[in-house]
């Protein structure tokens, strides 16, 4: 049976819309028996099995308003997706439904408020990328690693190693109480004595698969260069993004900002918990509430939401999608390291990450 429904759509601020309409009385009435049957599943009447109570008895036991509400819920649950499809609405939030007319043998009147994807006016992102890339000087492109950088990194490694050895050789309160003596490692002097472990073949082999000091320095140089390259690339990407966002006309939906805010707070809470602290205690120490934090991080959340919309639009225009084989590999990697991860959520995450990477590569190649 075709949908016998009339509706009017009104645009509201912040990318919200209101759908006001009526479902024809004849169609609405077809849900009466279905609603009655569903409600009967939770009713127990002496002398009858559950779900086998005669219709006339059910009608006498269930208030008519309850039947009508169930009819409305079933009817809109079925016809709301049809409205969305027919009107070609890109909905991104749950509908807020209010019933305006509810009676037997009458049209079902309703209002539905929901949020749709905003219209995005993108600037010339290809040209913006070109300008940013052409502004990078030769000096900034130079990623050579100096001897000082290598020596400074080695010193940091030595200090870190010395600190670990110092902690290992420091007696615990129980050892001190028992009078145990802890012998220092013969090959390492402690940082507390103003000395560092000697840089020799034995030391570097203890750090990883290095043949000798020369091999260690060569691989360290490669790693430093790779890190410098990654940092430079991230700076370039950030500059491209900032310039594109600056010129993009977009009214970011509140629901997307709220989602990003929740992500930020969830990550913060996870980090605090890993440090062995309760998030509630952390907030007390800061003398702040969740709402205070939301106000602080709102600009960051809005920028992330806006960026997500812009990248999504670029991928749509340029037909950029993640490779299915790469997505499968990434999902397998996630599930291997996080046994309790949800596969569907991991797949969505992998698709987003890999698609965004391809978008940035596209922009960098302008």
Write the H/E string, N to C.
EEHHHHEEHHHHHHHHHHH
Low-confidence stretches: 181-193
Mean pLDDT: 88
Terminal CA distance reads: 53 Å
Strand content: 5-15%
Fraction in helix? 55-70%
Computed Rg? 32 Å
The total of beta strands comes to 4
Question: Largest sheet, if any?
Answer: 4 strands, antiparallel
Number of helices: 15
**Structural class of the helices, strands and pairings?**
alpha+beta
Quick one: overall form?
elongated
Spatially, the strands of the biggest sheet line up as 1-2-4-3
Structure description:
- This protein has 366 residues and is α+β, with helices and mostly antiparallel strands.
- Among the domains are: 5-115, 2-Layer Sandwich (Alpha-Beta Plaits), CATH 3.30.70.1050; 119-249, no CATH class.
- The chain is built from 15 helices and four strands.
- Strands 1-2-4-3 form a four-stranded antiparallel beta sheet.
- Strand 3 (96-101) and strand 4 (108-115) form a beta hairpin.
- The longest helix is centred in the middle third of the chain and has 34 residues, at 213-246.
- 13% of the residues are buried.
């Amino acid at each position: 049976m075709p949908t016998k429904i009339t509706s009017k759509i009104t645009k509201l601020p912040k990318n919200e819309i209101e759908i006001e309409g009526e479902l024809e009385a004849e169609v609405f009435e077809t849900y009466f028996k279905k609603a009655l049957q569903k409600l009967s599943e939770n009713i127990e009447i002496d002398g009858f099995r559950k779900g086998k109570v005669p219709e006339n008895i059910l009608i006498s036991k269930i208030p008519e308003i309850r039947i009508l509400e169930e009819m409305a819920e079933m009817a809109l649950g079925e016809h709301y997706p049809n409205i969305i499809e027919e009107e070609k609405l890109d909905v991104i939030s749950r509908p807020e439904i209010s019933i305006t007319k509810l009676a037997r043998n009458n049209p079902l009147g309703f209002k539905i408020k929901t949020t749709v994807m905003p219209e995005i006016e993108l600037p010339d992102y290809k040209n913006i990328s070109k300008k940013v890339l052409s502004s990078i000087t030769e000096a900034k492109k130079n990623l050579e690693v100096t001897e000082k950088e290598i020596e400074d990194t080695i010193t940091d490694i030595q200090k870190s190693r010395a600190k670990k050895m110092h902690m290992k050789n420091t007696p615990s309160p129980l050892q001190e109480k028992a009078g145990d003596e802890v012998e220092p490692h013969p090959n390492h002097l402690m940082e507390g004595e103003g000395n560092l472990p000697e840089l020799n073949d034995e030391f570097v082999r203890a750090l990883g698969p290095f043949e000798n000091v020369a091999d260690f320095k060569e691989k360290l140089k490669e790693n430093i260069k790779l890190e410098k390259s990654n940092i430079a690339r991230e700076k370039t990407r950030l500059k491209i993004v900032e310039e594109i966002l600056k010129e993009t006309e977009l009214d970011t939906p509140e629901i997307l900002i709220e989602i990003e805010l929740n992500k930020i707070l969830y990550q913060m809470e996870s980090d605090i918990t890993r440090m062995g602290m309760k998030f509630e205690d952390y907030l007390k120490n800061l003398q702040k509430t969740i709402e205070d934090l939301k106000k602080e991080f709102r600009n960051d959340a809005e920028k992330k939401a806006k960026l997500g919309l812009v990248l999504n639009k670029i991928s749509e225009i340029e037909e950029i999608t993640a490779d299915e084989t790469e997505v499968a590999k990434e999902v397998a990697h996630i599930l291997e390291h996080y046994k309790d991860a949800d596969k569907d959520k991991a797949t969505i995450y992998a698709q987003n990450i890999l698609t965004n990477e391809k978008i940035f590569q596209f922009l960098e190649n302008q």
